[in-house]
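Sample log: Phosphonopyruvate hydrolase.
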Amino acid sequence: MHKHAILRSTLDNRQLFTAMAAHNPLCARLAAEAGFDGIWGSGFELAASYAVPDANILPMGIHLDMMRAIAAAVATPVIADIDTGFGNAVNVSYAIPQYEAAGVAAVVMEDKTFPKDTSLRTDGRQELVSIETFQGKIGAAIDARQDSNLVIIARVEALIAGLGQDDALRRAYAYQEAGADAILIHSRQKTPAEILSFIDAWTGQIPLVLVPTAYPQLTESSIAESGKVGIVIYGNHAIRAAVGAMAASMGWTPPCRPSTT
């Protein structure tokens, strides 16, 4: 079965799909062999590997080339983190066929302004585009894909921006209406309470996607029990482990820094 169809079938059957973040083919292959269902083509991890902030500093071509290399190295589906789509709806229309040709099974696009700032940065600039603007970007992604099995995931950043659950739900329902296949809801809170509240309130027809980096108390079993979550993404664990291992091999302990993703 084609990678697009594998992920699509898993979501349609409401099975929980687990994806581990990777920043190169070696990391992706280790994740696949460890038993994860798919690979999260993390913008944060790739930026970190280039020693730059996760703030749209790297051009699309660098991320695209890495997604192509990762997709060629593993048999599992790759979910590409395309941030804000590298610009407006016109940029999205250009990017989607490129990523599809690179072999990814899904793309995740967030409703922030371009260039973005990383979501869990305490003093970060978290500015969102209007609902109508992002609906247009979702529509552009849908129109640009060649295979309808390519999964388009809309990432809602309202909780990150401090706009509250009502705004997050309003955006999520609007993005579902625009044709998104799933909704990624993100939170910077250190406990899962905010996310659990959103899950409880969500009555949409498409599955949710979680990135529990900041609230690891939430287990896969409890996530699956909700029946509303289709994908769990483990973001930036591998790059953190790599940094720690490299520093240790050099006899140096890096300073502790706030969590970012």
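Observation: The mean pLDDT is 92.
Observation: The longest helix spans residues 164-178.
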